[in-house]
Each structure stands twice: as structure tokens, then as C-alpha cells.
Design a protein that fits this description.
Two copies of one chain form a homodimer. By secondary structure, the first copy, chain A, is an alpha/beta fold. Chain A is built from six helices and seven strands. In chain A, strands 1-6-5-7 form a four-stranded mixed β-sheet. Chain A has a three-stranded antiparallel β-sheet with strand order 2-4-3. The relative contact order of chain A is 0.17. Chain A binds a DNA duplex through helix 2 and helix 4.
Chain lengths: 168, 168
DNA sequence: GTTAATGCAAACGCTTTGCAGTACA
DNA sequence: TGTACTGCAAAGCGTTTGCATTAAC
């Protein structure tokens, strides 16, 4: 469902995708989350930890319901409500982003510390291609600066037909 | 709620915003819609026409419900269902775009023939600033071409704090 | 006259919430 | 032991849909 690509200088590790990120990095991310909980006087529950671990195992896009199912397949029962509540926390510490690709539900995405990318979305097969382009980021920076606007984050979605679908 | 801005060569008329577009242009757009109906063997009903006129009167962002209310204030009763169905048609002939700005509901926008812009969204006051930047478009074009991707449309949303909110 | 459109209200699907019971710190 | 968290089921909310009626062509 998701491809990984970079067509410009990669600002961080290049081995993204699948389960390939190094153990140190995942540990760092988990620490960010733990620190956040501590700072807010929140508790690390069995369920919260299970959800976070499941999300950190991978770097693709997923739906909330998918996490419920993946955990259930592993014999871990966590309610939908708790998954949504945990996603909210992860968004707050910028470890997860929420996307809308034109359908009713939201897609979430595990974002690695400080990394960012945008999306090409094939409206025929639903495939989502990720890319990062430094020039694009620079131009956006400049636009914000022109408007005296202080960016926190952005989302660029390019819709169209991917190369595979164009061939068939 | 919405500002209009261009910080790059304007590809079309500069007097956009408010109710300022010329009568010729509005007529052209209506013709596009009428042609579309004819081509698809669809009918121009009283309700459909009322919805389209109401949308073409203005160029800001709006919610579906807002159209229902604006018409009702003018003593024109059109059901929510019909408004949604008409918006669908307008999207199909590219006279309206659908956006998600991070809240539950969709925002729609009357887009003028062949024009396009992106959005800066202030997460503090909710203000939406429109902009167009040719360099940005060029870079996107290039990215698509690198991926063999055929773009139909795109949406860039930059979230952050606008200059007014930064001052206060 | 035929075909498509409308309005209503019910259905939908994702997400959120109130609340009583549970578990972390 | 106190406070936060969980699960459940119900509610919310924007949006879509089935169906009987109405209107365009």
C-alpha cells in the first residue's frame, strides 16, 4: 500500500521503510513519549505501551482500526477508544501525523524524529508514494516568511495517476 | 475568515476576493456547468440552479451547511441532500474543490476557471490565507515527472501561526 | 410520458464521550 | 491511596442513501 522514495538529499537515515529503522532510534522515540507522559503527569499503562510499540514497529500509514486489529491478532485487547486517545498523545509529541487522503477516515503515520515527507496519491489504485524534496521545503519557507507566518507543519498531497496505472 | 493574496505573478485576474469577479467570468462558469449537465443528460432544476448561483456569488471557503442556511435566509428551501449532491457535480466539473483543514467537516471552495492556490492555515485564529507561487508549482511538476506520476490536482496546507496572532 | 431530482428520515462510519470500574504511581 | 486510565456502549456529527413523490425535458 505504501512505497518509500526520496528524490533529493535525504536529511536523515536512508533505510526507512518496513521494519528497518535501528533500535537506537526507536528507543529514542519511545523516550520522547515517556518524557512527555512524565511531564504531563500521565501514566504508562499496559494498553498505552502496547499501542505505542505497535505503531513504532513500522513506518507506513495506518488507520486507527488497523491498530486495534493488529493488537488483537497478537492477543492484546485494547479498545478503540484507547487507541484514539493514545494517537492523540502521539500527535501531541509529534511522533505521529494525521492525514486525510480524500476518504472519510483519517490515516495516521509514524513519523521519525525530525523527518518529514509529502505524498503522491494515486486515485486509481490508492497507492501512496512518499517523497522529500529540499527545494520544495525551501520555497515554502520563503512563502511563510513573506507572509510573516510561523509554520508548525505542513501537508502536500499531489493526486493523480501513478506510473503503474498509466501503463495499464 | 479568509484573506486573498498573491505573492507571485498572478496567472489570471487580480481582483479576486469578495464579490468582485466580472460578470463575464461568472457566466462562463455557469456555462461550463450547464454544458456538463447537458452532456450527462442531467436536468437543471430550480434547486440546483439556486445552489450553483449561491456558490458562484462568492469566492471564499464554505461548508455545505452554510449554503443551506444562506439560501434559507433568502427564502429558498433546498435540502441538505441536494446541496451535497450538487457539490458533487460541481467538483466533477472542477468548479468547486473540497478541502479538509483538520476539523471534522469538509470545506468547499469556488475555484475560478483554471485558477489554483494553496493555503496557510492559522491554528490559533482559524484564518485561512490563500497564496499562489509559481516556483512551488514548478518544483511539484518536476517531482511528478521524476516519478512518472500524472498529476490531476494537489493541495498544500501550511499550518502555523499568522502574523496577527504572533503579535498578540 | 419518461427519466431524473427532490426531500425526508433513516442509515452510515468514523470518532468522541460519560461513566463506573480498574490500575498505575 | 489518589489520580488517571480503561472499556463499554451510547452519542455525535457530517455525510450518504432508499424510497415515494415531484418536476424537468
Amino acid at each position: 500500500m505504501t512505497q518509500q522514495n526520496r528524490n533529493s538529499p535525504a536529511p536523515a537515515s536512508a533505510e526507512r521503510g518496513g521494519h528497518a529503522e535501528g533500535p537506537r532510534k526507536a528507543a529514542d522515540e519511545k523516550q520522547v513519549f515517556l518524557d512527555y507522559l512524565a511531564r504531563q503527569n500521565l501514566k504508562l499503562t499496559r494498553q498505552r505501551e502496547a499501542v505505542v510499540n505497535e505503531i513504532f514497529r513500522d513506518s507506513g500509514h495506518f488507520e486507527a482500526e488497523e491498530i486495534v486489529q493488529r493488537l488483537r491478532n497478537n492477543r492484546v485487547r485494547v479498545s478503540r477508544a484507547t487507541v484514539y486517545r493514545t494517537l492523540e498523545l502521539l500527535k501531541e509529541c509529534q511522533l505521529v501525523e494525521q492525514h486525510n487522503f480524500g476518504t472519510a477516515q483519517s490515516y495516521y503515520e509514524h513519523v521519525h524524529l525530525g523527518e518529514h515527507h509529502d505524498h503522491l496519491i494515486c486515485t486509481q489504485c490508492g497507492n501512496v508514494i512518499e517523497f522529500y524534496n529540499q527545494r520544495l521545503e525551501d520555497v515554502q519557507q520563503e512563502i511563510c516568511s513573506n507572509f510573516g507566518f510561523e509554520e508548525t507543519h505542513h501537508s502536500l498531497r499531489i493526486f493523480g495517476v501513478c506510473s503503474k496505472c498509466r501503463q495499464s
